[in-house]
Protein: 4'-phosphopantetheine phosphatase
Amino acid sequence: MAERGGRGSGHGSLDKSITLPPDEIFRNLENAKRFAIDIGGSLTKLAYYSTVQHKVARVRSFDHSGKDIDNEPLYEISVQEEITARLHFIKFENTYIETCLDFIKDHLVNTETKVIKATGGGAYKFKDLIEKKLGLKVDKEDVMTCLIKGCNFVLRNIPHEVFAYQKDSDTEFRFQTNHPNIFPYLLVNIGSGVSIVKVETEDKFEWIGGSSIGGGTFWGLGALLTKTKKFDELLQLASKGQHTNVDMLVKDVYGGAYQTLGLSGNLIASSFGKSTTADKEFSKEDMAKSLLHMISNDIGQLACLYAKLHNLDKIYFGGFFIRGHPVTMRTITYSINFFSKGEVQALFLRHEGYLGAIGAFLKGAEQDNPNQYSWGENYAGSSGLMSTSPDVYPMQRTRSGTFDMLEMDRLERPLVNLPLLKDPSTYIPDTVDLTDDAMARKYWLTCFEEALDGVAKRAAASQPDSVDAQERAEKFRQKYWNKLQTLRQQPFAYGTLTVRSLLDTREHCLNEFNFPDPYSKVKQKENGIALKCFQSVIESLDSLGWEERQFALVKGLLAGNVFDWGAKAVSDVLESEPQFGFEEAKSKLQERPWLEDSYSQWLERLKEGPPHKCALIFADNSGIDIILGVFPFVRELLSRGTEVILACNSGPALNDVTYSESLIVTERIAAMDPVIHSALKDEKLLLVQTGSSSPCLDLSRLDQGLAVLVRERQTDLVVIEGMGRAIHTNYYAVLRCESLKLAVIKNSWLADRLGGKIFSVIFKYEVPCK
Structure:
């Protein structure tokens, strides 16, 4: 159903006073290629696709033939321009539509289309205005089709898109794990009336029911009862009201609970029932609240009946009646819980307001097949979910004016689940939910704030020849600082708040200001130094007996993991002690008592069991970590007859090794070591990219090529190393094969929380239950 609104009923009354900052609102508009628009009665949602030019770091191997390689850099680093695709979604009040259309017209340069896809009731009302202002033909699309296409898109591409609303709990928004199969589900769209749609596949859906009693009923009757004509003001009244002053409850009829039927005394027996017997005036607030409960209960019961009839347990609610309002989400949630006896959960979408615009855009882009790609939310350019707290809401509105934004970047390759996850539907990457854990949230937000100046300084230093590097670094610092302050007030803004999301937001902000790889020179230098030590490390290992060598290999893996520039305790040491190296890192390790049990199980497996068929190893840091820690371990597995898939980040994050860097490093190691050389030649050692540019690891969003390889090679061992990949994420991940999770705890607060000391080690060998 179409949205309805209170302001801006005619073109002549539209407000033109707003000033639009192009660097925040209509970003990259000059490179927009295609448009779509969804106009309700009060809100307009604009979608456009643009090409974004930004800097990327590239590495290329030098030709070292005939040169003194000891004094030459390992590889060349260059920063190049790259063109990528981005989707922009902007939501604003219809009041500003004419001003926004003028702004778009003035900044439109490279559009490739002569048509704009449009949906929503307002698409008819504003058709002539759009065509006149933009010179584009309006092509109207079916509202429900667009909503469903948009819903499928966000469910597939945005982790933590879905949430349950829990007003009285510590965590207001309870985000759900994305299920690998999003179908089937029930979509209940509450506009003027109610439409209930069963969605079975991407293109198969049917309208199965509805009601004429919906948001329009609440608005119309509310206006009659309270003389309040604006929808949001009605909801504000309802949020302050007490419905029991107007509604007749079960206890008002029976003097308490109706035990025979199992009905609570506080259950509504008759909406507005007291208005027929009480000789008094009722407050506007109480009447609005009673009306809201009456309509929500009606919708909730209908939705439950249809869900049970069609054997569905997922119900997503949307439409202008919802729109993130706490009072409507709370009443709908209560109604669904009551009528389903807790068997069905009312679910809401973080980007519900954009579904129509997303769907209209997808309809216009079908020839490009956008669903063949994976997309990722760009936290740097997105507003995030608004707080429902009256104390926070004004601050948020001040930040973004009357506009909300969502930006999504097209990823180079499709992302899929790791085939070895035991149950992808219950997999949760992150170990700690900072939305729930207030103490941890306060610590980590402060930690990221304190590290910010250092990150900005390193970013500027990474581009010494750029005249504006300092200015861009300051803009990065300010933007990320603002994001952190928003997350202090509303930790649910981008879904479940975790250490991973804080790190990813920082990377997005760095890229936004063209700092693609601030640690590129550090990695180049450390890779070169570590390579010079590789042969002596291998000789030392080969001189040991078998059992001693296994322990030395594990200790080397852990010592290598110390070299993490993302950990302040380590970066302070590395900056103050330039000679700090592999042996010094070994001496720092604190072996926790239970390491011995897990390690002895691993050792027993190596002694008694057959060689693993194929090991998948997720590498962490450049330099000593991958060269002196990971590669000797890889070499040992290869010597046992185990194939190895070595997976590295597709793009840079901190000093983590990237896929392109790993190719060069491996080539140099192969030139020194016959085991590695032979394995590469015979394709027993395979280098792949993860599809990620994060210091952490989400096993539900991995490069499709990696997943295919894992299946083809019958992988039966997964090794995950590093604090980001094995502690902040995946500590509790359950796999269908054997796994090793290794890391060094390089944070004093986290070590103390886990009952250890800084530089304590994690060595977790797990065997799947049979």
